[in-house]
Design a protein that fits this description.
Layout (H helix, E strand, L loop, with lengths): L1 E10 L2 E13 L5 E9 L4 H13 L7 E4 L5 H8 L4 E4 L1 H9 L4 H15 L4 H15 L4 H9 L1 H4 L7 H7 L3 H14 L4 E2 L6
Parallel strand pairs: 1-6, 4-5
Antiparallel strand pairs: 1-2, 2-3
Helix pairs in contact: 1-2, 3-6, 4-5, 5-6
């Protein structure tokens, strides 16, 4: 699981935004471990590539699946460092991205219809449900549907896994829960004096 959490840091008298790049690994046995936290400027796929190469240099040889948000270029960065790994985009992030094209009056019905896509038994049925959705909503909200079609390669990998694992990898909730823990610890500190202190 990879995600960044943002903080404010003093830099040469100015207050700047910094991203804390966090990688949370889960072993085959289900043990979680924070593999590292790197501080950089605003989140970018270029910085993530450096993080991934650092992990490789530290001995992470193989990753079955990366669970990430929809940051542009992140899939390419992962493929450059770990060519054989699967990339799973967070379904919740994908839904939020789709919802920005849909007005409030249709949002509830639209989101309920999408549940049939990502709750499908397998990828084949999920695609059928997506095409049914396209028939129903495609003319009204083409960009919302097209977003799913264009990103299907990073939306669908979780269908290859059993239900128990799907529940964990189709969203980045695990790492976002970790970020909530970080925020509890850092909530009294609105600005950090240096990157090191962060």
């Amino acid at each position: 699981f990879m995600d960044a959490i943002h903080y404010k840091v003093k830099d040469e008298g100015r207050i700047t935004n910094r991203a804390a790049y966090v990688v949370l690994g889960v072993t085959i046995d289900g043990y979680k471990d924070i593999l590292g936290i790197w501080i950089g400027d605003n989140e970018s796929s270029k910085f993530w590539l450096g993080v991934l190469n650092d992990l490789k240099n530290r001995g992470v040889q193989d990753v079955l699946i990366f669970c990430v948000d929809g940051l542009t270029g992140l899939k390419e960065a992962i493929n450059a460092a770990y060519a054989k790994s699967e990339v799973q985009r967070c379904i919740i992030h994908q839904l939020r991205n789709s919802f920005k094209y849909v007005p409030y009056k249709d949002l509830k019905a639209f989101s309920n219809d999408f549940k049939e896509v990502y709750h499908a038994i397998n990828e084949e049925i999920a695609l059928e449900k997506l095409y049914e959705l396209k028939e129903k909503w495609g003319k009204e909200y083409p960009f919302a549907i097209r977003s799913w079609e264009n990103n299907w390669d990073v939306i669908s990998p979780f269908f290859k896994f059993p239900e128990e694992i799907r529940k964990i990898i189709y969203t980045t909730n695990i790492i976002e829960g970790l970020h909530r823990q970080f925020r509890k610890v850092t909530k009294t500190k609105t600005i950090f004096p240096t990157d090191s202190s962060l």
